[in-house]
Fold this sequence. Notes:
Blueprint: E1 10-16, E2 22-23, E3 32-33, H1 35-51, E4 58-69, E5 78-89, E6 92-100, E7 105-117, H2 118-131
Amino acid sequence: MATDLSVGTSLGRSLKVDVGRTIDFMGDDCRVYATPSLIRDIEHACRDLIFERTPDGQDSVGTVVSITHLAPTLLDMEVEITVTIAELDGRKVVFEVVANDPVDLICKGRHERFIVDVAKTRSRLLAKAEKAGKS
């Protein structure tokens, strides 16, 4: 598993909070960035950083998410997510994550991913599907 990953490598991702990323249970005038959407966006940023630096046929899967969602971000606000490799342990990659909107630090925490061989992982998933009667 040759990679171009090192502690301290960062990736920034800017996005606009659209309707699909918000909660609606407080009414349309109070839509804010939903925590599950924030987590998804963090995972995608971390995956992209790894994917860009690993050989063909490898990817990564999320294994641990530990964030604190500190402040609400309103619909149509810009968000900057920054992910930084904090630790490398074999195939495990640990990220420090922060996210900001123009007003607040909205999130901080950690996310762990595991680098996998896509073909081997696919074989294991198909075998599990067969055992579960889903093939």
